[in-house]
Each structure stands twice: as C-alpha cells, then as structure tokens.
Design goal:
The chain is α+β, with helices and mostly antiparallel strands. It contains 17 helices and 23 strands.
Length: 526
Amino acid sequence: MDNNKSTTASTGDWLLSIDNGTQSVRALVFDLKGQLVAESSIKLVPYESPQSGWCEQDGEYYWQKLCEACQALWQQGIDKNRIKGVAVTTQRGTMVPLDEQGKPLHAAILWLDQRRSDTSSPLGGLWGGLFTLLGLNETIDTFRGRAQPNWFYQQKPELWQQTYKFTFLSGFFHHRLSGEWVDSAGAQVGYLPFDYRQHRWAASWDWKWRALNIRPDQLLKLVDPGTLIGPITASASAQTGIPEGLPLIAAAADKACEVLGSGGQNDEIGCLSFGTTATINVTMKKYVEAVRFLPPYPSAIAGSYCSEVMLYRGFWMVSWFKEQFAQTEQVQAEAEGIETESLFDELVDSVPPGSMGLMLQPYWGPGVKQPGPEAKGSVIGFGDVHTRAHLYRAILEGLMFGLKEGLELIERRSGCRVKELRISGGGAQSDAAMQIAADIFGLTAVRAHTIETSGLGAAIDAAVGLGLHPDFDTAIAAMVRQGQRFEPDSEHQQMYQRLYREVYLNIYKKLQPLYSKIRDITGYPE
C-alpha cells in the first residue's frame, strides 16, 4: 500500500499523472506536496506473441486502457477544477508506427521484443570502417538488428512507406491527448536517431541515419521535460474525462521519472529501481558513458543526464522464482488474500547473509551489452545444505552485487561519489531486499515515500512546467520525502565486501570462455 496516499482531501492545486507501464496503466492525482490524493490502476495484458520471441500490443488497446484508468479515477468523485495540468510517462523503447491521423498502422513493438532485422549488409562508408577499426561491429549490428523501423522497412515495406511518424508510446499518447505531433526529449530511449549528448535528433552526418531506415520527416518534434505540449482536445476529453483545455506538459520515460520521483537530482544520490528491469541511476549535469559507447539516458530534469547500468532480467527473477518454486506461498497468499511476494521475506530471514556460499550472477537477459553479448546467468557454490530459501536470498544478493558493480562503473567513469541510495519499484516493498542493499553497498538505503515514484516524477515535471514550483530543486524539496531508512550492518557489510571483491567480480572472468563455447555450440544467446 502507498503510505503517501491521502486519507483526507488536501488543499490547493492538484496534478494528474498518467503512467503506462508494461503491467498496468495508472491515473494518479498528486498535490503540490507530493501527496497522492487519488489513484486508479488498470491491469494490462503485457503483450501478445504471434511468433516465438515477439512481444507486441495493439496501440488502440493501450489508449483504451488509458481512458479506462482516467474514467475510473473520476468515479471516485475527484474535483477536476483543482487539477491544473497533466503529464504522461510510459515504458521505454516501445514503438508504434502511425498514419497521418495518428492511427496505429501496426501493433506496438515492445522493448521486450526479440525479433531481429537482417544486418548481413555492412554499414559501409566512413562510419563502417571506423567501427571495424574500433571492434564495434557487433554492437552496431545489435543496434541495427533491434531497431523497429528497420524491421518494418525489411518485412513490411508498404507499411513503412505509409508510416507518417515512428514514435514511442509517449508521443502516441501526446498526439491523442493534444493533437500535437510532439514528444519529450526525456522519453527518447530506444532505436531512433537521437543525440543523447545534445538531447535532440541526430545531426545529418551522424552514423545513426546510416544504421536506421527512417526519414527525418517521420520523427516528432522534441521538447524538454517541463515544456507545454498543448491543451487537451475536446475529443480526448470526451474519451478520458480529462477537462478540455487542461495543459499537457512533457515529462520523460518511466525510469527517468522514477529517479526524479525518488529525489535523485544530483550525483551524491544513487537511485536503484527494483522493477522487472533493475537499474542503478545517477543524475548528472555532464555526459558520462558508464559503459563505453552506451550513452547516459535523458533525465526528467531538463538538461541533465541519467547515467544508468541495467540488469535486463532484474526483479523479473523474483517472478520466476515465484512461478517455479513458491507454490506453498502462492496457496497461503491466496488463502490470506495477500500478494505472494509479501511472504518471501520470511524465506530470506531464514537464511544467513551470504546464503551459505551460494552465489548468483544475474546475466539472465539474452544478448546483453554489459558485460558481453555471450553472457549467461550462473549459480555457483551449491551444497547439500541449500534449499529454495537459500536460492531466493542468493537471487537478491546477486542482483545487489550486479547493481553495485554498475554503480562502481558510474563512479569510476564520472569521478562522482554516491553517499546515499534511494530505492523504488515493486521490489523496494521488501524490507529484506532493502537491508541487503544497504549491507552490500555499505550505504544508507532509503525507501521512496510513495510506490508511485514514476508518476510523482511526471507530476514534478508538470509542476515546474506550469510554474507551480519555480524550479526542479524547489519542486523536489516540496514533493519528495524520505521513507523508511535502512542502515548497513557492519559485520554483514564486511563479509559481503569480501564476497563481492574476491568472488563475484571474478565469476564472469572465469566463465566467459565457457559462455562463448555455449554460444558457439547452441547458438544461444544469438
């Protein structure tokens, strides 16, 4: 439960945030103190798979569920007159091709999708030679192969020709709500020709234009987070119930908004997201590539960067554990009317720190860039004492080790020094996960004061854009508060430090040749 939800009507102005994730779409009302006044949530069918590895969803389905979430909100008796603006945040990298009326020409292709375009034709030109010299051909081929516009160009050329705009979900929603062909620079995380340093479309000479089958006229106009996009149209108002004429303000992608909603506005704060994909983010004023040739993503704070390292299969592993090993807890949770995951802390607490030598490395996403495209997950140290409880604790510890390695990459490349952790996402509701994070990082871990951090980040963008708070620092000070704090246990910290330095950091080095052999023999991951 969100411990920030208002139990009495707050006074003053309100802001509406729409948060479209992979699992649900939520309509959220916040006041100018960051208090959640009202919320509605509609579960989503995450995706359809017409072929193995494909993940797509009808764009009209997303819009319909957004409308349902808004209409459910108004049924709670919300005073619409107090809402001064609206902002949208969405899952990253999910793309939809639109015609001139803004109608989807094909299902949206999700960020989870594993289809690939043909990259047998070399990039060529000066860039092709340079990438060969730098040993980056595999990285560039991965970019070209995963880019949705390239797949449409190769597999559905007539549809590609008909596409008026290629856009992420945020741009699709902005057009539906305001009629404007505009998206936020803060939402550009994916396979479009975006300049991550300048936060604008890439210059005409940039290699991305050679790597992507897309024309400049097929892209939306970009604006900074906190910029007015336009008023809500009469048509959108009729479908959503959002008041006609209400200002629509640009926000950013959900991870960037999550960082903002956690209070991560400078490089002394490390923001961990315990979501399906687990991330470590540090917000900076300078451009820093934590992993070479992987750019920092745009922040929800205009002009700033989110230096990020991602574990593709992050707290997804908790769902995997639940499906494979937690039938007992599932039955108990159903009988008690609670979430299964709420019982997992008992498993963790039954096992000592270090999981009695069981260690996990969470490279469970195929084709990852970091540490290498051949990487696979591993679990080492099994013995006859180990149970599923040990495995579950090892999952949490392995995720924290992986995120700690990411933070060290960021600190090493940027010269910053993180002094405190802010943690959000569904996994942050676990006290055990919070304490393990504090112990492994050796830093105070602070739970976000609301579970709806991405929605709060979007509301902060709206508040600044509307002048309801004069700047981001003021808005964050007013709207973000700290939740429960978890301090590191010195004894556990020392043990984890040794496991991390002497074991974890060596696992990949030792197993990498075997991973490559597995890849050569089985063809997986591609």
